[in-house]
From TrEMBL:
Keywords: Isomerase, RNA-binding. GO terms for molecular function: RNA binding; rRNA pseudouridine synthase activity. This is Pseudouridine synthase. It comes from Helcococcus ovis. GO terms for cellular component: cytosol. NCBIfam families: pseudouridine synthase. Signal peptide: none annotated. Belongs to the pseudouridine synthase RsuA family. It comes from the Bacteria. One of its GO terms (biological process) is enzyme-directed rRNA pseudouridine synthesis.
């Protein structure tokens, strides 16, 4: 692997910034100053330092975003995607959103380049709960709770959803817990109960909760503890 890729993948900076660091003699490879950005390194054996601090290579990137409305949960689209919100240092890292939130839905979105973990989180067999907060236009009832418990039939797919949980907060507010991610699933489940969703926000995924200090459109890297929690969901 080229050393500029190694360093940019480790979050030191963009390729352009890394090349400048090398030019300024700030990068050491096995205690020797690196002279070329094309220098090959072995991420498992070589010791790389930046400003005399050893750099630990990050093969995978894990981000938590508070997704705003107006962005598509995709890597490419004619409209704005969630990747457009990322800084340059996270571009071209094969990062993708884990699952999708509708364009007009806000809240927790995990982004990563770890395909195996994404599959584990999205597989219905793993039964990873996704929790949503919803505002609706009609009064919620105990009957709605019972319908969710039994699963709701989705006409388009001719599919009965897995049993879900509806927790009523007020007449027009609720939490929804699902283990799947069918197209517009939460909205369609509530619509089958005679409710139109006016606002929808994902609160958690498994045991990872949205960091409420993140403003809409902001994101941060997951902590080591959070990554471990995700892997053990």
């Amino acid at each position: 692997m080229r050393i500029d890729k190694y360093l940019s993948n480790s979050g030191i900076g963009t390729r352009k910034e890394v090349k400048q660091y090398i030019k300024n003699g700030l990068i050491l490879l096995n205690d020797k100053v690196v002279l070329k950005s094309t220098q090959q390194v072995d991420e498992n054996k070589d010791k790389i330092k930046f400003k005399n601090q050893e750099i630990i290579y990050k093969k995978y990137i894990y981000l938590m975003m508070n997704k705003p409305q107006g962005y598509i949960s995709a890597t490419k689209d004619y409209n704005d995607t969630v990747l457009d919100l990322l800084d340059e240092k996270f571009q071209n890292k094969d990062i993708f959103p884990v699952g999708r939130l509708d364009k007009d839905t806000e809240g927790l979105l995990i982004l990563t380049n770890d395909g195996k973990l994404a599959h584990e989180l999205l597989s219905p067999k793993k039964k990873v709960d996704k929790k949503y907060y919803a505002k609706v236009d009609n009064i919620l009832s105990e009957e709605d709770i019972d319908k969710f418990k039994d699963g709701i039939y989705l006409e388009k797919e001719q599919y009965l959803t897995m049993p879900a949980k509806l927790e009523i907060i007020s007449n027009y507010e609720c939490y929804v817990y699902i283990k799947e991610g069918k197209y517009h699933q939460v909205k369609r489940m509530l619509k089958s109960c005679g409710k139109e969703v006016l606002y929808l926000k994902r609160i958690s995924m498994g045991n990872i909760n949205l960091d409420e200090t993140l403003d809409l459109g902001q994101y941060r890297e997951l902590t080591e503890k959070e990554i471990e929690i995700l892997k053990n969901n």
